[in-house]
Amino acid sequence: MSLPEFRLLRPRSIEDAVRCLSEHLGKDGLSLRMLAGGTDLIPSMRQKLFEPEYVLDLRGIVAMRGIRPQGDGGVEIGALTTLRAIERSDFLRQHYAVLTEAAATVASPVLRNMGTIGGNICLDTRCLWYNQSLTWRKGCGFCIKKDGDLCHVAPGGTKCWAVFSGDTPPALLCLDAEIEIASANGVRRVPLNDFYTGLGDNYRKLQPNELVTRIFLPASTAGYRGVYRKLRVRGSIDYPLAGVAVAMKSYDGHVADARIAVTAVNPAPLLVKGAGELLMGKPLDEALAEAVGDLAAKTAKPLTTSALTPEYRREMIRVFAKRAVLAAAAN
Ligand SMILES: Cc1cc2nc3c(=O)[nH]c(=O)nc-3n(C[C@H](O)[C@H](O)[C@H](O)COP(=O)(O)OP(=O)(O)OC[C@H]3O[C@@H](n4cnc5c(N)ncnc54)[C@H](O)[C@@H]3O)c2cc1C
């Protein structure tokens, strides 16, 4: 599958990038696409899911790279920092272990060398009927997410159920991450928890003229024990078909604080509501871990969007959540 033709723009600073966005977006906002590592965008362009006139290559913006511990005990991560750099960071492993563990499971070493954390956060949602060639999609009938008005996953429905399949966002949610977003109108900072819409098509709250520049992890979640568990077809490379992240703090054998998040089973990565309250102040045992697994499974709403059945993926969320909290407590 060949790439459609496009013009490459290569800004050297965030200000340049923002200016390019204002000048080349076009009326519908679809004339330009941003490229970070390109590991998701380029295959999608080959499948003719995107055919932008311009590609804004962010890789020359040095200010958007790097892991910078802050004086207050938190850390700032540039959106262009590669997943490999995150996986290998001693600072992050020591203070935000769930993030390094999740980053280490993304795709393969080659893709982690190119793929960035910003690209992972902004990753397009996926579906069996969407991530296909143009010929395939024409043959089957276009869907709500691209060029059509029907949903093959939930026929008769009007909502798109494409699934968010990034590995690091559930870890970032557990760590109370915030992201910085820049545009010609200035800079805003939002909790990652408010970034996703829960819809498969318009899955993120990011205007076409905005880019994600930095990620912030607070001092308050530094030192939490972290575990990430993931289901995929091929352990060496595939996207998650179910994923669970846990970040937990204990005191005197009792849970002092805990967050659990799931990915790849809904159109957005989600924190499991009530999990922290359920665990708080209690010593973790098998029965409590089982109850957390049940809660996580209730949060997961997988449909037939991928190779494994929805029932199996939901069951694996239950199993992983139970195992992950037990592992975090035992760490
Ligand atoms: C074979 C294969 C296996 C994969 N397996 C996994 C997996 O297991 N887990 C997983 O999470 N991912 C997986 N991926 C997807 C991808 O490699 C990662 O998600 C990666 O982190 C994407 O980052 P990137 O920098 O390459 O993003 P890009 O492809 O450059 O961009 C992805 C999207 O984000 C937008 N974007 C990128 N950066 C910004 C920014 N700073 N501001 C605003 N928008 C931005 C782009 O416009 C694009 O829409 C896989 C990909 C392939 C090809």
Describe this structure in words.
- By secondary structure, this protein is an alpha+beta fold.
- It has helices at residues 14-24, 41-46, 83-88, 90-95, 97-103, 109-114, 117-121, 134-140, 168-174, 275-279, 286-299, 310-330, and strands spanning 7-9, 32-35, 54-57, 67-69, 75-78, 178-183, 186-191, 211-217, 225-231, 242-251, 254-263, 270-271.
- It folds into two domains: 1-60, 2-Layer Sandwich (Uridine Diphospho-n-acetylenolpyruvylglucosamine Reductase, domain 2); 65-122 and 163-330, 2-Layer Sandwich (Enolase-like, domain 1).
- 31% of the residues lie in helices and 20% in strands.
- Helix 5 runs antiparallel to helix 9.
- The protein starts with 6 loop residues before the first strand and ends with a helix.
- The structure holds flavin-adenine dinucleotide (FAD).
- The site of flavin-adenine dinucleotide (FAD) has 33 residues, from strand 2, helix 2, helix 6, helix 7 and strand 8.
Short description:
This protein has 331 residues and is an alpha+beta fold. The protein contains twelve helices and twelve strands.
Q: Summarize the main sheet.
A: 5 strands, antiparallel
Question: Ions, cofactors, ligands: which are bound?
Answer: flavin-adenine dinucleotide
The count of DSSP E runs of length 2 or more, i.e. the number of strands, is 12
**By helix and strand content, what is the structural category?**
alpha+beta
* Overall structural domain count: 2
Helix percent reads 25-40%
Rg on CA atoms, Å? 20 Å
Low-confidence blocks of residues: none
Amount of beta strand: 15-25%
- Terminal residue distance: 46 Å
The overall pLDDT, averaged over residues, is 96
Q: In CATH's first tier, which class of the largest domain applies?
A: Alpha Beta
Count of helix runs: 12
Question: Which shape, going by the Cα principal axes?
Answer: globular
Output the strand order for the largest sheet.
4-5-8-6-7
CATH topology name of the largest domain, in short, is: Enolase-like, domain 1
Q: Helix and strand string, N-terminal first?
A: EHEHEEEHHHHHHHEEEEEEEHHH
- CATH architecture title of the largest domain: 2-Layer Sandwich
CATH superfamily of the largest domain: CO dehydrogenase flavoprotein, C-terminal domain
